UniProtKB/TrEMBL annotation:
This is CopG family transcriptional regulator. It comes from the Bacteria.
Length: 139
């Protein structure tokens, strides 16, 4: 009487580069190629192991939440800028036509603003992050 086999044989076809990678890994770890493929499949199909479809789904959900926050923050930023521009246009009087000196000063201020913005962006720090730190938590 023969014993039933504990493992079932399966034939798979791999890309030559992937087959070489599996063979190299098996050689380095002193394991059979079957064991390397079995371990990889088990990790991929088991959501508890941090890999596989379950982990991919969780990661996609995290990315979706982050994108949602980015979209919200961008909307707030655009709305803030639009309100500021509207307020500025309503409260700032127009320059008289022969105001070349005022236009030159405005141009210099704009260049200074662009330089300041470039410096700030290069540091990686954002104003809204500083504002979040300055505001006390609500009770």
């Amino acid at each position: 009487m023969s014993r039933p086999r504990r493992k079932q044989q399966m034939t798979v076809y791999l890309d030559p580069d992937l087959a070489k990678t599996v063979g190299d890994l098996a050689t380095r770890r002193h394991q059979s190629q079957s064991m390397v493929v079995e371990t990889a499949l088990a990790a991929f199909l088991s959501p508890e192991q941090g890999g596989g479809e379950g982990a991919v789904g969780r990661r996609l959900e995290r990315v979706d939440r982050r994108l949602g926050r980015i979209e919200r923050d961008l909307g707030i930023s655009v709305e803030t800028l639009a309100l500021f521009i509207r307020f500025w246009l309503l409260t700032t009087p127009a320059l008289p036509e022969p105001a070349a000196a005022a236009r030159a000063q405005a141009s210099a201020r704009y260049e200074q603003f662009i330089e300041t913005l470039a410096r700030r962006m290069s540091t990686g720090r954002r104003l809204h992050e500083e504002l979040d730190q300055d505001t006390p938590p609500s009770p």
